[in-house]
Amino acid sequence: MKASLKKRVWLSFLTLVLLFIVNGLITISAVHNIQKLSHRISTSVDPAETLLHSFKSLLIESKMYATNWVFLRSNDEDKKALKKMHSEDYPKLKSALNNLLPELNNDTITNGLKNIFSEFESLIKVEEDIMQQLDEFSDYDDPVKKIMAEQTIEYEIIPRTAKILKELETVSLIAHNIEVASDSRREKSSDNLTFFIIALSISVIIIGIVLSALFSRSITNPINQIEAIIWDLGKGLANKVTYKGADEEIDQMIQSVNNLSDKIQETAAFAVAIGNRNYTVPYLPLSDGDKLGKALLTMRDNIRTSEEELLKTTSSLIQRNKALEQYTFIVSHNLRAPVATIIGLAELLPADQVEDKDASVILQGVKEAAQKLDRVIHDLNRILEVRQQVYEGSEKVSLSRIAEDTKQLFQNIIQQEGIILEWDFSQIDTINSVKSYIESIFYNIISNSIKYRRADVVLKIDIQSQLKKDKIILSFTDNGKGIDTEKNSEKLFRLYERFDTSIEGKGMGMYMMKAQVDSLNGNIAVQSALDKGTQITIELPLT
């Protein structure tokens, strides 16, 4: 019986393998054919239709620009467009079409396009003659030149353009027919592949039903029980098989499954104990080669040691950090008074009133050094205030109102430089947050955009809001100088870190902004590149 079952299993297996091999070969062939057709459509037929459409537009525009050249002598834009069309647009279009001709492999299209190119290039020469006749503004006052140019438009440009357009329409129709035929072949191949896959699926289902019927006669109740137990083990349920029979192999299999169930229960109980931080539960590995059991014991010891060390380290760090911030706060405040005294004394005795030049230089140096130190202390106090500020609740904040208020702060430079500052908060305009932080974030970002604007373009700043589940996404985009974020990603939010030393600044804005966003339980990301602008994205909770 065992040999018969094994033989049926191998026969069924070989049958299924053969079916899948045949299916694979046919599928590969069909998919290759579909890919080939799709590649031809996407790389030659579709681009060719697009280029032919562009060529048609170019012909119409060429006629229009040439006509405007004659009848609208003040229209410099159309004149420039006609020159650009002759020197750049048409050569590029011709080159692109010529590159596609080998792929299309159609003599009618090839010959038709060559004839159209020749006729249009001849027409371009006619247009260039008109351009030379009416090259200067004063040429339009010459009635002979003007009449000749108008006649050329009427009797040559317009009818010849119509003729070329008609020929181009014929070529376009041929290209369209090629695309239709290719699509038809591709759809037919797809239908054949679908039919074959359905047929194979039906065959596999029928074979599976037959095999199931055969194997159901051979598999006994204990095997079904073992299968159920294994499924339960996969669900985390450790049950046992209750069966008494004469088959020794089945008995051994049942004992193995029951033993596995017992050991899994013991291991699961030990893992639960570790998860509950009960590190004293006894546990022995199942054998000398029980890697899972030994790994659990090692994990228990490591977690216990790491937890103890982490608690000690965390407590120590918290105390040290508080002590350091307090000490820094006290030192900075204690320094303000003597520094202010030094500045005041230095101002009482202006350097230009000191007769001794060396003493005057020293006095001026002392004053400047004291002022620099005062600014450093001021910045330090600002940082400490942000870090030590206790969050006492939020309020409703209108983003559009803050944007408008911020714009008013920069109104003078916005009007002088023609800066464009726009925002769209149509998705969401009101959030519950700390208003002073939101105002500071808007101010710092807009201030940086204005400060680091490019001289060759008009600065444009765009602000958008987006609602994403229970969060708001704010994006600030500008076309300024930008930052090489790939090179400076780790320095973006460092204190006193500056990336453009040609403009005065302290390098505190990004640091303060990051601290405020963190205080609001938000995230901030910067995408930027040199001379390509910057986008700052801030994600904040709604409440």
Radius of gyration: 41 Å
The run of helices and strands is: HHHHHHHHEHHEEHEEHHEE
Parts with pLDDT < 50 across at least 5 consecutive residues: 1-5, 321-327, 388-392
Q: Give the % helix.
A: over 70%
Roughly what fraction of the amino acids lie in strands?
Answer: 5-15%
- Tell me the number of structural domains: 3
The helix-and-strand class reads: alpha+beta
Strand arrangement within the widest β-sheet reads: 2-4-5-7-6
Q: Indicate the mean pLDDT.
A: 77
Number of strands: 7
Largest sheet: 5 strands, mixed
**N-to-C terminal Cα separation, in Å?**
71 Å
What is the overall silhouette? flat
Helix run count: 13
Multimer state? single chain
Topology:
Layout: H1 2-71, H2 76-104, H3 107-133, H4 143-218, H5 221-234, H6 248-275, H7 291-348, H8 357-388, E1 395-398, H9 399-409, H10 411-417, E2 420-424, E3 430-433, H11 435-451, E4 460-468, E5 471-478, H12 485-488, H13 509-519, E6 523-528, E7 534-541
Parallel strand pairs: 2-4
Antiparallel strand pairs: 1-3, 4-5, 5-7, 6-7
Report what the structure shows.
Helix content is 71%, strand content 8%. The protein is α+β, with helices and mostly antiparallel strands. It folds into three domains: 2-209; 284-388, Helix Hairpins (Orthogonal Bundle); 395-541, Heat Shock Protein 90 (2-Layer Sandwich), CATH 3.30.565. A five-stranded mixed β-sheet has the order 2-4-5-7-6, with helices on one face. Helix 1 (2-71) packs parallel to helix 3, helix 1 runs antiparallel to helix 4 (143-218) and helix 3 (107-133) packs antiparallel against helix 4. Mean pLDDT is 77; it is low at 1-5, 321-327 and 388-392.
